[in-house]
Structures are given as structure tokens and as C-alpha cells.
Amino acid sequence: MSKKSDQSLKLLEKVSTGWPTPEKLDNANLLEQGLYAILRRSLEPAHAAAVVVGLRGAYTDWNELRVAQAQEICEHFDIPAKQKLVAARATKEYLQEVFQRSHGLELEFLRDDPQSAARFVSILPYVGLGTAHWLMWLAAGEKEVPVTQGLVRVLDRLGLIARNSSSKKMRAAIDPLVPDGREVDFLLRFGEVASRWCDARKPACYACPLVDDCRHGKKAFREWQIQQKRLEQQRIKDEARRAILAKKEEEKRQKEEEKRRREEERLAKKREAEDAKKRREAERVAKAQAKVREAEAKAKAKVEAEKKKAELEAKRKAEAEAKKLAAQKAAEKAAAKKKLMEARAAERKAAADKKAAEKKALAEKKAAEKKAAAEKLAAQKKAQAAKLAAQKKAAAEKKAKAAAALAAKKAADAKKAAEAKAKKTAAAKKKAKSGGRR
């Protein structure tokens, strides 16, 4: 191991990507390798590979998958339920970024033009430069470390190489820095430094794990600390100003609150006086109304007494008249009752005589009807017996004819069988004789 590679190895040990190093997926193109690497950030190798294979068979093309809903994509995953939605969203995010940056959904062009590929991978914030380096390394047949602006910027700021416009010179300068067997780690970790902290437009050197080893980072970190101190001082001033303003606002609010309280007390006293006046007026009116009601009640009681007296007198007169009328009605009722009883006795006798005559006539009628019914039933039974005998006789004759026909048929069949057998025997004898003559 060279001195430069030893130095870069020490720097690599300080950097962590935050997720495991992806493995090469068998029978996968570069787009699928990239998807597998993205899924490995949250899934185990077997689950990530199963997701890629399952999606490859579930959709006709990757664009159909890109525009599908995350819940729909989850249905094709054979992984733990709590990881399905995370994997689906990561898949959509990855495909959407590739589509927007390349206007397509394939990455095989990374194999053809390394310089164009280097420019392309520099605009993939979701994929990140570390994963993009790994894809370029696979595209190059796992033989050479790709050279990108982000990687060159990090190594230049760390003082490991001097930046140059020639990609060949940059490759010649970078190759000695790569520790043997640590090519993937070198690409992933320095790529993550370039993506997370060493951005050309908005560097975050204060959070970079390599800030102590970077001359540019140290300067930027000192500037950041100065800026943070200024921001803290400004924050303290702003807080003091806000506190003063808050105090003034609080004093103003308290004055307004006191003014509002005094006004409410004044209005409350005014309402209380008005309520007391209303109560006194209501009491005066109530007393006057009570006197009026009392006078009206006395007058009404006097009228009621006179009315009751008149009603009692009228009632006594009515009771006397009613008694006289009741006696008269009782006498009339007794005479009418006697007359009615006599009339009813005559009616009952006439009704009894009529009922006896009707009963006798009805008995004679029923006897005649019963005799006619018995004669009719006997005639019906006799006709039915004759009909049944005729049916039995016809059935017996039909059965005898069928038996005779069956016997004749069996005899004819036996005769035909005997004749056929005789013919067959004669033919056999004739054949035997003709064979003997030969």
C-alpha cells in the first residue's frame, strides 16, 4: 500500500454513508442495479433483490411503474408489511429522478461516454454521488474508478490531488489513492462527502467529518463559526428587542385591560341601579294587581253564593216535580208491562205451534231425501262393480294375447336359430369334403 493510499484509507475510516454497501445483482441492467442500491438503504439484501425481481415481472416497463400509485406498488412486494410503503416510495423517487434528468428510463448510456456520464451523475441529489459512482464503476466493468467533478473537488480540497481539466491526468492522480480492494468504499464514501457536505454551491463544511483534514474546510469552518457567533449576537439583540417590545405591549395591554375593567364596573353599577329601579316598579305594580285581584275575588264569591242559592231552590222544585212525574210513569209502566206480558204469552204459544208443524214437515222431508240417496248410492255401486268386472276381463284377455304372441315369437326365433345352425353345419361338412379331395 502506497503512502497516498494509506492517507486516503485513514480519511475513508472517518466517513460513514449511513447505509450498507450494495452488492452486485445478478442478471440486472444498470437501472435495476441502481434501484437495488436505493432499496438496500432500508432493506436486507434478499428483500431488496426480491423487490427488484417482483417489479420486473409485475410491470410491462419501468415507466408504468413510475406513474403507479405507491399503494398499488406495495401489492407486488413479498417483504414485511412495515417496509412495503418505504420501498414503494423509494422506488418511485428513484425512477422519477432518473426520468427527469435523462428523459428516459435506462442507464446503459453510462457505459458509452464516461464524460457525459460524469456530468449526468452530478445532478442526481436523491441517488447521491456515492451510489452514482458505484453505477459508473459497474458500467466500466469494475475495472477503473470513475472521475467526476464532485470526487475531484473533494480530493483537491483534502490536498490529495491538484485539480486539472484533463480527465486522463485526474485519473492518473486518483488511481494511486485507491486502497487495494477498497474501490467501492472509496467511491461510495468520498461520493457521499461530495453529495452531503462538499457541495460546490452550498458547502456544509461545519458538519463534514473530514473538516479537520481539509484546508478549505478549516477556513470555511472558521468562517461558519464567526458567522454563527454573529448570528448568535444578532439573535440575542433580536431577543432583547423582542423582550422590550413584548414588555411595552404587555404594559399597553395591562392599561387597556384596566381601562376595560373600570368601564365594565361602571356599566355593572349602572345595570345594577336600573335593575333595582325595575324591581321596585315591579313590586308596586304587583301590589296594585294583588288589590285588584282581591276585590275581583270578593265580587266573584258574592255572585257565586247568590247563584248557588238560586240553583238549590231550582233543584228542590225540580226534585218535587220529578217525584210526581216518576209516580205517574211507574203506574203507566206497570199497566204497559202487564199488557206486554199477555201479548208475549200469546206470541210464544203461536210460535210454538208453528215450530212444531215446521219440525214435523222437516222430518218427513229428510226421511224422503235419505231414502232417495240410499237408492242412488246402491245403483252407483252396482254400476261401478259391473265396470270393474269388464275392465278385469279385458285386461285378462289382453295378457293372454300378449303371452301367446311372445310364445309364437320365441318358437319362430328357435326355428330360425336351428335352421341357421343346420346351414352352418352343412357348409362346414362341404368345406371339409372339398379339402379332402385336394
Task: Walk me through what this model shows.
It is a single chain. The protein has twelve helices and no strands. The relative contact order is 0.05. It is mostly helical. The protein starts with a helix and ends with a helix. The chain has helices spanning 3-13, 30-39, 45-58, 62-66, 70-74, 81-102, 114-121, 128-139, 149-157, 167-174, 183-196, 215-437. The longest helix is centred in the last third of the chain and has 223 residues, at 215-437. It has a domain at 3-210. Helix 7 (114-121) packs antiparallel against helix 8 (128-139).
Show unreliable segments.
Answer: none
Strand content: under 5%
Number of strands: 0
What does the average pLDDT come to?
86
Compute the CA-based radius of gyration.
63 Å
Can you give the helix content as a percent range?
Answer: over 70%
Number of helices: 12
| Order of H and E elements | HHHHHHHHHHHH
Q: How far apart are the first and last residues' alpha carbons, in Å? A: 113 Å
Shape: flat
* Secondary-structure class: mainly alpha
Main beta sheet: none
Short synopsis of the structure:
By secondary structure, the chain is mainly alpha-helical. It is 78% helix and 0% strand. It contains twelve helices and no strands.
